[in-house]
């Protein structure tokens, strides 16, 4: 019998584009979906969702940045006969109280947990790849990363491990249902240490500068970000600085529990990424 396709939302994003080839190498059919993918999927256009869900066995969900739509999406998935959901959330999603930060993730988790389908939630810490594919890349090129991240160490996780876990869970029916996996790297390091490792590998100075959250918000707005978005990002770092009391600054063994091997080190990420030249000016 031909296996049912796995629907991967956020197919062009940092996790989706890593999960898709892993599923295809296992010989599984994949429906890669996002606004700009071959299969068009838009969180703001529910009229197109049923066609995207038709015949699908499992879904990898990268939730939208606003609370709400995942509830309707899960109802449509149930009606379409989908059997399993794997949701990308974030480490500590249940420790952020009423903060605006993470409302999207908490809401998506609620929608998935309330479903009748087999579900698994992945909660990674900050990605290693934020340093070359996302917000920290431009500051590293400029030679200085300015953040209100404090001295609290962060157990950065490699996206290759997040993708390995997601692909394993998506392809192991009945083994990870009802589980919430907190995914970390093998050790926590401060942003200053992370910058130092990247600087050493690149052979040029890259420094870390600690600022207050208000100063960081002002910096982001001067760089052109809207006031609300800037506040939102700064709030994420305020949450991170509470990581010692909330537990999100510590490592877990949940990558190893799913994969049967240790997570990749930050140093491994650094040598691989330095070789691509992405940090060269
Ligand atoms: N960065 C971190 O350290 C970190 C840590 C833990 C959790 N997270 C969570 O990771 C999630 C982001 O996942 P990611 O990094 O894999 O994605 P990403 O790299 O941020 O890319 C976003 C993906 O979503 C798609 N997309 C954007 N708007 C859409 C819309 N309206 N409808 C449908 N698809 C849309 C984009 O493709 P198109 O443009 O083609 O639509 C793209 O594929 C966030 O929820 C974040 O909270 C991040």
TrEMBL record:
The residue range of the signal peptide is none
Fetch the Gene3D superfamilies from UniProt: NAD(P)-binding Rossmann-like Domain, UDP-galactose 4-epimerase, domain 1
Domain NAD(P)-binding span(s) in chain numbering: 10-173
Taxonomic superkingdom: Bacteria
Q: Which PANTHER family match?
A: PRESTALK A DIFFERENTIATION PROTEIN A, PTHR43162
| Protein name in the entry | NAD(P)H-binding protein
Organism name: [Mycobacterium] wendilense
């Amino acid at each position: 019998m031909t296996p049912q396709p796995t629907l991967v939302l956020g197919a062009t994003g940092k996790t989706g584009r890593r999960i898709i080839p892993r599923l295809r190498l296992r010989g599984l059919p994949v429906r890669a979906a996002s606004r700009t993918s071959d299969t068009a999927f838009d969180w703001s256009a529910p009229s197109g969702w049923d066609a995207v869900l038709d015949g699908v066995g499992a879904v990898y969900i990268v939730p939208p940045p606003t609370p709400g739509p995942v509830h309707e999406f899960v109802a449509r998935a149930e009606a379409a006969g989908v059997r399993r959901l794997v949701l990308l959330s974030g480490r500590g999603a249940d420790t952020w109280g009423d903060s605006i930060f993470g409302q999207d993730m908490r809401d998506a988790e609620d929608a998935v947990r309330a479903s009748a389908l087999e579900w698994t939630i992945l909660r990674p810490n900050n990605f290693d790849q934020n340093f070359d594919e996302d917000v920290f890349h431009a500051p590293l090129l400029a030679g200085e990363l300015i953040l209100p991240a404090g001295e609290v160490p962060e157990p950065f996780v490699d996206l290759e491990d997040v993708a390995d876990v997601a692909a394993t869970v998506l392809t192991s029916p009945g083994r990870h249902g009802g589980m919430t996996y907190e995914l970390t790297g093998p050790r926590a390091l401060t942003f200053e240490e992370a910058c130092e490792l990247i600087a050493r590998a690149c052979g040029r100075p890259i420094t870390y500068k600690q600022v207050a959250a208000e100063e960081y918000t002002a910096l982001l707005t001067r760089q052109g970000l809207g006031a609300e978005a800037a506040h939102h990002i700064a709030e994420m770092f305020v949450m991170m600085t509470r990581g010692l009391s909330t537990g999100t600054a510590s490592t877990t063994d949940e990558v190893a529990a799913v994969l049967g091997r240790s997570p990749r080190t930050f140093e491994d990420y650094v040598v691989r990424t330095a070789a691509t030249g992405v940090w060269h000016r």
